[in-house]
Fold this protein.
Amino acid sequence: MARAALWFGLLGGAAAWTLHLLLAYLIAEFGCVAEKDAIIWAGITKPAWMLLVMSAVMLAVAGAATWAAHLAGKHPGRHDAEPPSVERYMARTGVIMSGLFTFIILVQSIPTFFYLQSC
Amino acid sequence: VDVAPERVEQFERTWAQPRGFWGALSVVNNQPIGVRFMVTSLVFFAIGGIMALLMRIQLAVPENTFLDPQLFNELFTMHGSTMMFLFAVPFLEGLALYLIPLMIGSRDVAFPRLTAFSYWAFLFGGIIFYVSFLFGAAPDGGWFAYTPLTGPRFAGIELDFWLLGLAMVEVAGIGAGIEIVVTILKFRAPGMALNRMPLFAWAMLATGFMIIVAFTVLLTATILLELDRAVGTQFFVPEHGGSSLLWQHLFWFFGHPDVYIMFIPATGVVSMVVPVFARRPIAAYVLIVVAIVIMAFLSFGLWVHHMYATGLPTLPMNFFAAASLMIAIASGIQVFAWIATMWRRPLVYRAPMLYVLGFLFIFVIGGLTGVMIAIVPFDWQVHDTYFIVAHFHYVLIGGVVFPIFAGLHYWIPKFTGRMLGEGLSKWGFWLIFIGFNVTFFPMHIMGFLGLPRRVYTYPHELQIAGYNFAATVGAFVVALGVLLFFVNVFYSRAWGRAAGANPWNGDSLEWSVSSPPPRYSFLKPPTVRAIHELWSERPLQESEASARAREALAAAPLEWRATLVTDALTARPQAIQFLPGSTHIPLHAALALLLASAGVLMQAYILAAFGMALAAGVVIRWLWPGEKQLALLQSSTIGHEAGVPIFATGSRSAPWWGMVMLLACVGSGAAALIYSYFFLRLFSEQWPQDDLPLPELMWPAIGYGLLAAGSGAMGWASYAFAQWNRGGVHAGLAGSLVCGAGFVGIQCYLLANAGFLPQANAYASIFHVINWMMTLLVLIAIALIVAGHARITREGVDRNGYAPLHLQLTSLWWHVSVVIGVIVFFTLHVSPHTL
């Protein structure tokens, strides 16, 4: 479990960003071409809703990864998952990397708010 | 190292390079192969540079007639292709193949024969590119080869030269990428956990992964375009349902990461040079590692910023604009880390450091213009103008060529044992630095004034003649600087001052061995306690297991090449890896591929098929260990003495990682095809196109069910092996063989009775090609199973042999094929009925 948390903290943010970009591209490219201007609720189109929900989920995953890395770094070596120095390094790297990916997902989500009614 | 001289002599004999011309062709050791990569790519660099000079002469004055438009097209195509495919990436791969084992404390790379094969494939690919000139058919479609201009309707055999040459170079790149990743993950010296790895190794690790994904997508795209041209498929032919934009998506999905595939290793070089010449440990090591990894990821999320002017919906363009801006954070982290390392230090202004400072100045300018063109409206204004030419030369020459020259000046003393002349080096630097800025800075202004890219001349009225003339003068100044560098290398090779082991007081392991290093790099594997190992004064705290493994490997084996395998994360000893000696097999495999390419070029498809069959035969011979080798390893006691096995399995063995990387390639190729399917579908009013019948469901369901059953049978074979049940293993393998054969039979039946040929339209093309891919995957699985049967028959269910590993690798291949198969089934056969 400790090892899984360590790896999630290290790579969770990157994985969330990759999924976010892929899904954002697919929803925007395919959604905009196929269902342009089809407003479904509260004046927001279906692709925009999908993008907002998906971005929120991926932000949560990346944020969780950052937190997991932070927790793993507080007590390195406690779970004997890896040698303490390696564990500390992975945790520190995870906090910075997943934290940065959280920020990048946030920035990449901003354009959606300018295209709520149409692509 | 305390080893008897006669033992050392025998050890050196085992690692010696064969003499004579034929001997040189059989070399597989990382050092000579790394040098060949570097020298060959530098030759291509010189040729590409001469082409640039010819273009600059043409553009020096308005309405010049030095070159005609056709030749100009050929020159800019070949200049770009050469610099991108034949110089920068192969050079950096060569540098890594030479240096990585030395830096991480290994004796060689993970798969030496693959390294040699990669070199030959790279060389033959380059030759195919350039032979086109002899036939008067030089490629002229740009280094990006946009369709439909490069499709069968508008381009002749010149594009076949380009595509086939590129395919060979891509195969070489992928091979080197796998090599580099597995070597770094599994061959690090005991103690070199990930947190102590040199930054160049980190950079190459990220780059290796990127090559595996990006080059495979380009390979897929080039195969599709060649199929359009040679077989008549319709992937990129709009009038038959294809899409020119699909080519751009696939090409730039490779093309943008390719910039970082060149840039990230270059930053690795800078991170190695800066601490040595600032006499201080690197600042913010962790942040630099994070920046490398973030750049590697983000670079795959930027491809659309090359396509802002293609009419894409604005929302997706904004995602990519945001990603393009974000990558500046990662670049900025590295730049500030280097500045922090140099801050208030008395820098040693030798040539490597000068090139690093030049890099910082030029790359920051290139990076800033990169941020400008990441913004969509700005990009629309300067798209396809000389502003873009200026930007990417600032990035690629500043960000890649300057660090390459820094690296060359830094490591040439290690490669040759001789110091370069400092005076000539400094003259060379200043000429290149000044010449570069004189050449490319005016191009920003010319772009703003409206000079489009790729034009062979321009009118007087544009009033840019002065800028162009200055650019041409600057280009010749750069050429003079490069010439001085080559003169310096040749002069110092003969008369240079002896370098000694560590002329710069370097910090990494390559400086701990003689210059030039012995072929085996280290007689006794080193141990590592710090990032800057040679500067560390920390007492050595080594585990008993590590000391035992290192001691044992220093004493034996003497009659075969071996190195230590360690854990990917912690670098604890895990196994002894057998390393093959000199052989011509890699050359034969590359020659067979060359024959296949020649067959396609001459439209002699029987010859092409023969070449491919020959290549397959050579690969089978390659992978099959001889009786002598097996007996040698089985009788060796080195495993017992070192406390680790020779026949390791799973993630403890290098081949297992090699297979995982190969499967990552397969996955990338399959993903590119699935993406192409949905992309073509999205822009088609009718699917299947032209009233073609909907795909059948029942027979494919049975076929893919058989494939899944075969996976279960493979699982049974593995279980039986664990139970020492030889009969069970044979039964499991036979079961999967029957399932695989059944799948192939159904595939052949379905394709023969599909009711349409791949040439009918884009739907038919993608339907057939994805099915071919699946059939090929299963045929390879069948070949692996047949080989597995033979191996089990010969070796039994003995752990002291290759059988368990073979079974694992076959299972991996089969299971991944099933996963891809399930996705293919839903894509090709279910989605047209439901979506």
Remarks:
- The mean pLDDT of chain A is 85.
